């Protein structure tokens, strides 16, 4: 696991060494994709658009939130910011990492709740939007736009969680797959 964790730390270093404007972007993405947003923003919007889709978003959000906690009990998983200090692997050759308020999350890190819950709860909305686009257009681009936006959102959420050192890349991938 140390090899996987070390590779994740190196990847986070690369992300954090990007241009300064990216820091604000990643922090905004990780904040907006907080699982609470599913219940405070996505559910009401989905419910307003279509009651059935809204109820699906709510229930899937609740079940995936619960499953995420269960998975974290069994999988545990280290958090990058804490692992770097506890492992002492970087004692001789320190890594340059920036800490953010969200870096200090405690508790198990695997799988990423941001990725799992957001991915699961938004799926009914994405499929409904894809069906709507398919009814109104023959263009493959229009039909695939909701799914492409969904995939890009999950990618951005995953990268933001690695950027803020809340998760290792493999925990993000696990969260997306579980979602």
UniProtKB/TrEMBL annotation:
Localization annotation:
Endoplasmic reticulum membrane
Write out the entry's keywords from A to Z: Endoplasmic reticulum, Gluconeogenesis, Hydrolase, Membrane, Transmembrane, Transmembrane helix
Q: Where is the Phosphatidic acid phosphatase type 2/haloperoxidase domain?
A: 53-179
Kindly give the InterPro entries that the UniProt entry links to this protein: PAP2/HPO, PAP2/HPO_sf
Reported EC number(s) for this entry are 3.1.3.9
Q: Which domain of life is it from?
A: Eukaryota
- How is this protein positioned relative to the membrane? Multi-pass membrane protein
Q: Which is a Pfam family this sequence falls into?
A: PAP2
SMART domains from the entry?
A: acidPPc
Q: Where are the transmembrane segments?
A: 56-76, 116-135, 147-168
Question: Looking at the UniProt record for this protein, which Gene Ontology cellular component terms does it annotate, in alphabetical order?
Answer: endoplasmic reticulum membrane
Kindly tell me the pathway this chain contributes to: Carbohydrate biosynthesis; gluconeogenesis
Task: Offer one example of a GO biological process linked to this entry.
Answer: gluconeogenesis
Write out the GO MF terms.
Answer: glucose-6-phosphatase activity
- Enzyme class of the recorded protein, top EC level: hydrolase
Q: Which family does it belong to?
A: Belongs to the glucose-6-phosphatase family.
| Record protein name field | Glucose-6-phosphatase 3
Task: Tell me what organism the protein belongs to.
Answer: Casuarius casuarius (Southern cassowary)
Q: What gene is it encoded by?
A: G6pc3
